[in-house]
């Protein structure tokens, strides 16, 4: 039995009195002879003892009262919500109809677009889908205050279409254990979508311009409250008919995706725009990705595209900063694409469970776990990467001469 | 009688009775708060997440099947809430450590009893502060098992139920966590934690 190689394990079990009699005796003998293990035991025992002695931190005075108020408020809200229309299909249909009506309304009105930065992720995703069409028109030199953007209509329709698709998709889902849960979540999401669409169409309707500040503020005010609602609503939506374990492992996000978009950058023969682009992306705080395409020659004369990665918040500033500050001729090549990574995430989670079991088995068999731990760390890093991707967007900028 | 009372409280809490829920869970307020405080190292965040724990517990109690003890179930929610909070606030996390002012109490005690003198008290306080600083740097999954085992005194089985991992995994995680804590402290703060001379 090599105590030195796995002294952390033996010391920890010894501290907690979990070694069997025979192993404990051998370990005690080893401690007498090995100064390294002996010192480690002394230190780890002291730390465990200090932790045990630590006094409990007193509960803040108004803690219980505050919880009581929140529970009462929750209870009151629950009672109110029961009085509302409960038929989820009816709610889904009404929401879809509302979104379509608003979209048609917006289509027929002056689509003056000057979408500014939004503070929440929900608004940003809507904005990006519309902006991808707007950038194209800006590039042709139209004034931001008075011009009509033909693509805005399709952007609005796309937005409405996407929402409608989401509604249809969620209505079709029939997971027995989560049906009510998901429907309620999506009902809430649809209500939020309506609000987002409404704020978007209001800016299209020309309340911008002189009232741009008010409209912007309004939309900014609405969206944070929507987001606030969303955070509140999600737990509400997870009431009843949920397995204990499922409920507790479901947090605020159970779908994962990555975002990407392709843009065109028109450059002159002098190619200074590429340097300006780099400068702009640096100002935004984006990360330039290594070009892994072996066929692309990394040379300014023949460079075909450049990849960047930035957060959604950074991306929302791209359009205005490109046109106004850097005078770059950027246009949309393809719209924002969301790639679903949920399956990949779930596979990685399964791998985590499997590797945990392997680690357990290795410990039981007294085998080394270092390689398995490395593998586990690697899987964890991949999981974290997927989680982070939701807030990021990959931007591929094609150089057009 | 107490068990019967708990069981009837549980039935009422499952039906949404706020008073019954509070009576059932209020004895765990302090422990849950302590878990959150030690995980997040910040009183404001700890208050918010501890309250969030009980709000979630209230919403999900109708699904509590009694496969584990209520305390374990609450600790599990608290653990998940804290880990989620840390994950979401990874980039903006500012760790602000608050030092409890227990120095005075301890010194006072030592004057009237045979408890350790002021120097020993000061040393112990410094050690405890160093531990808290080190814990803030620890891997979050390691930090939680140290909290559950060494601070809260949960058994390996209880920890296994709390974090939903086999006992074998719990053993290895605790040993890794203690080793990480020891490495963080005993390499940089040898004067505090070791009294042998190299």
Span of the ends, CA to CA of chain B: 60 Å
Give the SSE order of chain B as H and E letters.
HHHHHHHHHHH
- Principal-axes geometry of chain B comes out as elongated
Average predicted local confidence, pLDDT of chain B: 83
- Helix coverage percent of chain A: 55-70%
Poorly predicted ranges of chain B:
93-113
Beta strand % of chain A: 5-15%
- The stretches of 5 or more residues of chain A where confidence is low (pLDDT under 50) are 115-123, 134-253, 292-298
CA radius of gyration of chain B is: 19 Å
> Based on helices, strands and strand pairing, what is the structural class of chain B?
mainly alpha
Structural class of chain A: alpha+beta
Topology at a glance:
The complex is a heterodimer of chains A (401) and B (198).
Chain A: H1 7-15, H2 21-33, H3 35-53, H4 63-83, H5 88-108, H6 121-139, H7 150-172, H8 179-207, H9 212-237, H10 244-249, E1 257-266, H11 272-284, E2 287-288, E3 305-311, H12 312-316, H13 318-325, E4 329-340, H14 342-364, H15 370-389, E5 392-400
Parallel strand pairs in A: 1-5
Antiparallel strand pairs in A: 1-4, 2-3, 3-5
Helix pairs in contact in A: 1-3, 2-3, 5-7, 5-8, 6-7, 7-8, 8-9, 14-15
Chain B: H1 2-14, H2 18-25, H3 29-40, H4 43-60, H5 70-88, H6 103-112, H7 118-137, H8 140-151, H9 156-163, H10 167-186, H11 190-193
């Amino acid at each position: 039995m090599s105590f030195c190689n796995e002294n952390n394990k033996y010391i920890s079990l010894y501290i907690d009195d979990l070694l069997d009699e025979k192993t404990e005796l051998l370990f005690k003998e080893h401690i007498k002879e090995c100064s390294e293990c002996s010192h480690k035991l002394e230190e780890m025992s002291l730390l465990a003892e200090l932790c045990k002695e630590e006094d409990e931190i007193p509960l803040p005075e108004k803690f219980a009262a505050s919880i009581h108020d929140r529970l009462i408020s929750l209870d009151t809200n629950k009672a109110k919500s029961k009085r509302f229309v409960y038929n989820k299909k009816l709610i889904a249909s009404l929401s879809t109809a509302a979104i379509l009506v608003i979209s048609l309304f917006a289509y027929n009105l002056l689509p003056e677009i000057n979408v500014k930065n939004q503070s929440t992720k929900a608004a940003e995703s809507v904005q990006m889908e519309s902006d991808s069409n707007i950038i194209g028109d800006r590039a042709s030199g139209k004034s931001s205050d008075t011009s009509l953007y033909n693509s805005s209509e399709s952007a609005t329709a796309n937005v409405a279409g996407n929402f409608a698709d989401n509604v249809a998709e969620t209505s079709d889902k029939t997971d027995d254990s989560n049906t009510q849960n998901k429907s309620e979540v999506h009902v809430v999401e649809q209500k939020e979508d309506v609000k987002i669409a409404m704020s978007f169409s209001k800016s299209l309707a020309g309340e911008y311009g002189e009232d741009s500040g008010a409209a912007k503020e309004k939309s900014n005010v609405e969206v944070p409250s929507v987001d606030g609602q969303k955070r509140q609503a999600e737990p509400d939506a997870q009431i009843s008919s949920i397995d204990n374990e499922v409920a507790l492992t479901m947090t605020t996000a159970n779908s994962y995706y990555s975002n990407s978009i392709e843009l065109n950058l028109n450059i002159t023969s002098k190619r200074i725009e590429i340097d300006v682009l780099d400068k702009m992306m640096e100002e935004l705080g984006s990360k330039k990705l290594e070009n892994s395409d072996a066929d692309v020659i990394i040379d300014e004369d023949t460079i075909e595209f450049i990849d960047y990665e930035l957060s959604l918040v950074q991306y929302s500033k791209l359009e205005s900063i490109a046109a106004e500050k850097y005078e770059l001729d950027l246009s949309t090549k393809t719209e924002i694409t969301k790639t679903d990574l949920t399956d990949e995430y779930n596979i990685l989670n399964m791998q985590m469970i499997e590797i945990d079991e392997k680690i357990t088995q290795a410990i039981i068999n007294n085998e080394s776990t270092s390689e398995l731990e490395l593998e586990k760390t690697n899987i964890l890093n991949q999981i974290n990467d997927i989680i982070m991707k939701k807030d990021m967007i990959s931007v591929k900028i094609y150089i057009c001469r | 009688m107490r068990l019967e009372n708990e069981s009837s409280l549980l039935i009422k809490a499952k039906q949404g009775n706020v008073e019954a829920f509070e009576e059932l869970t209020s004895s765990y307020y302090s422990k849950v708060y302590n878990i959150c405080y030690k995980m997040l190292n910040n009183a404001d965040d700890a208050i918010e997440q501890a309250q969030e724990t009980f709000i979630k517990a209230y919403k999900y109690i109708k699904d509590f099947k009694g496969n584990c003890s209520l305390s374990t179930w609450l600790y599990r929610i608290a653990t998940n809430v804290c880990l989620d909070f840390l994950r979401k606030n990874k980039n903006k996390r500012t760790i602000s450590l608050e030092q409890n002012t227990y120095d005075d109490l301890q010194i006072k005690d030592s004057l009237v009893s045979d408890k350790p003198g002021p120097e020993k008290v000061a040393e112990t306080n410094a050690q405890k502060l160093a531990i808290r600083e080190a814990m803030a740097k620890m891997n979050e999954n390691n930090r939680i098992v140290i909290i559950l085992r060494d601070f809260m005194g949960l058994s390996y089985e209880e920890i296994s139920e709390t974090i939903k991992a086999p006992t074998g995994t719990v053993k290895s995680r605790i040993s890794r966590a203690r080793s990480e804590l020891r490495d963080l402290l005993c390499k940089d703060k040898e004067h505090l934690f070791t009294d042998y001379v190299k």
